[in-house]
Amino acid sequence: MPGIGELAALATAVLWSFTGIQFTFAGRRVGSPAVNRMRLAIAVFYLSLAHLVLNGQWWPLDASRQQWFWLGLSGIVGLAIGDAFLFQAYVTIGPRRAAVIMTTVPVMSTVLAWLWFGEVLSAAELLAMSLTLFGVAWVVSERRNNRSRVSFTGDEDRRVYLIGVLLALGGAAGQSLGLLLSKKGLEGGFPPLSATVIRMVVATAAIWLVTLLRGRAPATIQALRDRRALVLIAAGAFTGPF
């Protein structure tokens, strides 16, 4: 069907804009680390249920070890690490600027694909990348008014804002590398839904293992008592990762 890809991309952008707002409000209530841990666990349930309905099994049992490796590594880099940076950026500089900085994901992905796979960049692609970077730099450098959770002044304000920008760039880099790694796992026509389940499962296992080792599990579970935050996280996990 003509234009179906463009419509899907537009719908994805709209849904992710809602997701960013939901995770921002939740992060301001319970902290961005707790949001990332809980939304991954909730997203695993959503995706596994969808996989059961569509494929008759909770997990992609037919996936090879190589697919588990590449997709799992993609999940850790993109979903556990990259999104941890992104969610903290939401809280620090707000969802609008963080979302603008995340538009560098295609640029980073293109550069990584050029370095890793030797893909050739056309003049049009180079121009598009330049325009994207110019637009991001313009928005990031404009004057700010109460974009973060807490008001700062002077050098402290600039330092916090710079940290927020770097966090958003870290989130973009994580997603870019995660997408590139997932391409290896999708080779051979592996179903995208099954691939997403693997990415989510491994990312969730990794982040909760680190949480347990660092003794942060009780604090995360305590955050579940904030019903408003839990509703926001569940809604964000549905409109975003799911």
Radius of gyration: 18 Å
First-last Cα distance? 24 Å
Strand content: under 5%
User: In this structure, how is the largest beta sheet organized?
Assistant: none
Helical content stands at over 70%
Instruction: Report the uncertain regions.
Output: 145-152
Q: Judging from the principal axes of the Cα atoms, what is the shape? A: globular
Number of DSSP E strands: 0
Our count of domains comes out at: 1
How many helices? The count is 10
Structural class: mainly alpha
Mean pLDDT score: 85
Description:
With 242 residues, the chain is mainly alpha-helical. The chain has one domain. Helix content is 80%, strand content 0%. Helix 2 crosses helix 10, helix 3 crosses helix 4 and helix 3 runs antiparallel to helix 7. The radius of gyration is 18 Å and the shape is globular. About 3% of the residues have low confidence.
